[in-house]
Amino acid sequence: MNGAESLVRTLVAGGINVCFTNPGTSEMHFVAALDKVDGIRCVLGLFEGVVTGAADGYWRMADKPAATLLHLGPGLGNGLANLHNARKASSGIVNIVGEHATYHIKHDAPLTSDIEGIARPVSAWVRTSPSARTVAADGAAAIVAARTAPGQIATLILPADTAWNEADGVAAVAPVAAPTPVSAEAIERCAKALRSGAPAMIMLTGRAVREHGLALAGRIATTTGARILAQGSNARIQRGAGRVPIERLPYPVDQALAVLKDIRHLILVGAKAPVAFFAYPDKPSVLTPDGCQIHQLSTMAEDSIGALEALADAVGAKKNGEVVQQPGRPGLPTGALTPDTLAAALGALLPEGAIVSDESVTTGRGFFKQTAGAPPHDWMNNMGGSIGLGMPLATGAAIACPDRKVVCLEGDGSGMYTVQALWTQARESLNVTTVVFANRTYAILRGELANVGAGTPGRKAADMLDIGRPDLDWVALARGMGVPASRATTAEEFNKQFAAGLAASGPYVIEAVV
Amino acid sequence: MNGAESLVRTLVAGGINVCFTNPGTSEMHFVAALDKVDGIRCVLGLFEGVVTGAADGYWRMADKPAATLLHLGPGLGNGLANLHNARKASSGIVNIVGEHATYHIKHDAPLTSDIEGIARPVSAWVRTSPSARTVAADGAAAIVAARTAPGQIATLILPADTAWNEADGVAAVAPVAAPTPVSAEAIERCAKALRSGAPAMIMLTGRAVREHGLALAGRIATTTGARILAQGSNARIQRGAGRVPIERLPYPVDQALAVLKDIRHLILVGAKAPVAFFAYPDKPSVLTPDGCQIHQLSTMAEDSIGALEALADAVGAKKNGEVVQQPGRPGLPTGALTPDTLAAALGALLPEGAIVSDESVTTGRGFFKQTAGAPPHDWMNNMGGSIGLGMPLATGAAIACPDRKVVCLEGDGSGMYTVQALWTQARESLNVTTVVFANRTYAILRGELANVGAGTPGRKAADMLDIGRPDLDWVALARGMGVPASRATTAEEFNKQFAAGLAASGPYVIEAVV
Fold it and tell me: Is the pLDDT score of B359 beyond 90?
């Protein structure tokens, strides 16, 4: 078998069953090998940001990596922003990036570039395979790197001749080490802080905001009086009726400062010490108050669940002592379509088992509260702040969980970065209902212009923040990519369209004019 | 004035009058400064690949750099593929990339990344400005770097506090050195080769394929019997009736080998020694035959026009001795819409002064010949091979040349990468007529799969090459972004729609179903 086939067979042997692709000439042997080998589903994206964002969504829901297939340095470049987001979410991805044949690189043909240089800022592991005989082993190492806790970006660069030359066969994939256990000393330090009686907060993310982690944190909170809070953004929160409810740290600095102002002990479970998303003149970068002691119970690479179990024991938390969310939905809203009525409609209609891909930016700041008592569901945020993740993330989640409904909550500004995701949803008949909040502006920037003290926007500045003139027609855009769509301008219209989208098989887009 | 204002005023003083933007929070002071300072037009793109590709097109037509405004590392990442293309075209661009405030970077907030690392593979010059007092001088240095022959990518990273803190004022922009003159020895070596009587070819690109360079090359060819040929891709060829006609080196390796097979002396004017775009098993990388001597008359950084003038003198070429293209257009085609009838329609209708942005890939291989006798026009290719440049390039060219008609020839696969360019064309009412060749496939890859010997595509592989299922509806996509559009399925329909598009003020899209 050739190198490409040895690599694809190694990927399948290593548990990789999906490859999100946007291939070119240098990847043709790899494509032929994907064709030949069973056990790996190929999903085409028309733009590489769709491919890499989908791989992020797949990891979050499948808890194992997908592969991507990208065309040389520029193809990787197009996928870079969503790889940045994936890296910040600690998602594991195996990127296969085509390269010219080893002997061709020196000729500096048009597509020649420094692929390793482009890969390094977003990758924990980068390797250019030197020959067809090493490709399988390099692929196996990439899988191990991607699966290493908490999940990492591994980029394997595949010169074309290493794909077409004769290989030695499939490589064995080494077992992946379990997350590092947390020391007894760290647990005792946190337990002591919680026992001190001073106001304490446990800030969680990663595995700790899944159902079991939240139950443990909830028990600890009940026993000690500590508050629990999730990071501002999280890869996947399991929430809804019957689960321990958790709020997130607000994005606006003043609100975040207010939430944290009385805390004397902050215990971090997977989370990082809270800092402002951006710096602003006259506002602090560090959000914890002076005198607040920060205790890292576990990092993302460590075993947060084991640490919470040990901490629950250390503070004598009662089994089943956690307070869970009672079921409850708001009534269907009527009247104007506003962030508030949209929040109510989501709360009223979100189906059990839904997976929410939330890139609603400013419009969605009230969505979390109104959906708290909906049936159990998962909620995914953009962890890296590079907008344009929502629709790809939804796409990958839908591939990972074909029996669940994905709800994508998308800003109109954000959605345009990777709008090509809709085509992949149509091709693969994915169960994704997308709501685009059409406020015709980068609304967040209007606030930020004021926040940074840059004054009131004049005409030229306003034009840079405003994405109307002309208005985007999301119904036309969606239909142009084969996705049925409709426009809602009142709460009543939205309720009806959202219910219809959820009931439909396959993708659906609603332009919610707010 | 603050750092942002000092930088914007320096840009304007340095001759930068257009800024293609996709800003975020960290760039708000820069946006406010753009608002305040006259002399710089701001053009918003809804995706950064539009922004950087437009800056490339602007350079090619204006012969001076535009600025771009990008949001931190991921925003730069989204612009990377078209910066790669711009670098390969030797286009000068001044990228302004926002960054967190200097004191905020260490907190590793969600958008923190290695911006310099992302910039380096595509930039000749990279600098992170350390303070508001250095920003203007750093901007002046960036302009000089961008304008240094043949044109370079300069990336200035602007931490937010260097924008909002107090600055020292506007910096002087140093004069830019003229392109390096070519040595008398190089000219004599090339003259000697041309006088030898052995079959010779002059391969040109850069300034040498503009009108004056081609006239000089044509005179040399007339006198010496040498053939002239342009590189496979060129930033801007000036062609049409009354100009010296020039063909390009074909993309398919076998055709390129056939064109070059008898050449004994190859003289390179700006051009690089010809190599295959990709490597293929059993085909050579180097396209010149054994025994062909290669003489570099000038590199892209050198003065190709001066070198051609000296060479023309050295071989005794007669003034006005060049053979120019006679006017002549094919008749309007009838019947089925095919690459051949499309070529005839373009030849019949291309208006005088048109600027062609050619990313027609496989469909367009016959376009060059049929448009040779059209009235004078410019023809731009993708130099870096990363598809998704055509529509942004057309956008930037239209900003540079508001009085000319831009014709964008775009593959349907290529067009989807940066489809957001259409919105910018609508907002700015740009005179761009786009023809999308809807063959519902990455047609080039079907040929390449066979070329690399990867066999006949099976179902999974065919799905990776085929972009139908569902078909893209380009009329809907264009209208969704505010651009009028129509679909042509016969030559007669196409003739009528293309003429209407050219006659219209503002952008127009034709989906040509082939």
Answer: yes
Q: Report residue A138 CA to chain centroid gap.
A: 26
CA–CA gap between residue B211 and residue B238 (Å, rounded): 5
Is B482 exposed, middle or buried, given 0-12, 13-18 or 19+ CB atoms closer than 10 A?
buried
Cβ neighbours around B254 below 10 Å, total: 10
Distance of alpha carbon B18 from alpha carbon A123, whole angstroms: 35
- Given a cut of 70, the residues of chain A with pLDDT beneath it are none
8 Å CB contact between A377 and A328: no
> Please, are residues B54 and B421 in contact by the beta-carbon 8 Å criterion?
yes
If one counts every other C-beta atom within 10 angstroms of the C-beta of residue B38, the result is 7
Concatenated DSSP letters of A460-486 = HHHHHHB--SSPP-HHHHHHHTT--EE
Residue of A nearest to B442 (CA): A24
A335-351: burial string, b at 16+ Cβ within 10 Å, e else: eebebebbbbbbbbbbe
Chain segment B128-145, per-residue pLDDT in tens: 999 999 999 999 999 999
Cα separation, B439 vs A127, in Å, equals 36
B265-269 β-sheet, strand order: B227-230, B200-204, B265-269, B293-298
Query: Taking the mean position of all CA atoms in its chain, how far away is CA B396?
Result: 10
User: pLDDT tens across A341-397, in order?
Assistant: 999 999 999 999 999 999 998 888 899 999 999 999 999 999 999 999 999 999 999
- State the greatest distance between any 2 C-alpha atoms of chain A, in Å, as a whole number: 69
Contact A294/B at CB under 8 A: no
Predicted pLDDT at B105? 97
Among the partner residues A113, A275, A454, nearest to B121 by beta-carbon distance: A113
Closest by Cα among A109, A82, A90, A103 to A20? A82
Tokens 């396209």 sit at which residue? B287
Residue of B nearest to A72 (CA): B386
pLDDT reading at B312 higher than 90: yes
Count how many Cα atoms sit within 13 Å of the Cα of residue A91 in the half-sphere of its side chain: 37
Burial annotation B451-467 (CB, 10 A radius, 16+ → b, else e) = bbebeebeebbebbbbb
B49 vs chain A: nearest CA distance in angstroms?
8
CA distances from A54 to A241, A389, B225, B330 (A): 28, 8, 57, 48
Other CB atoms within 10 Å distance of the CB of residue B322: 21
CB-facing half-sphere around the CA of A100: CA atoms within 13 A: 23
Q: Beta strands B237-239 and B377-381: pairing type?
A: antiparallel
A142-195 pLDDT, tens digit each: 999 999 999 999 999 999 999 999 999 999 999 999 999 999 999 999 999 999
- Identify the pLDDT of residue B456: 81
Residues 225 through 254 of chain A touching chain B, CB cutoff 8 Å:
233
Of A109, A120, A477, the CB nearest to B275: A109
Kindly determine whether residue B386 and residue A74, on different chains, have CB atoms separated by under 8 Å.
yes
At B443 the pLDDT is 84
pTM of structure: 0.98
B302 vs B268: CA distance, rounded Å: 12
Beta carbons of A276 and B448 less than 8 Å apart: no
Does the complex come out with an ipTM higher than 0.90?
Answer: yes
Among residues A396, A245, A74, A31, which one has the least CA distance to residue B418?
A74
Q: Phi and psi of A13, rounded to 5°?
A: -60, -30
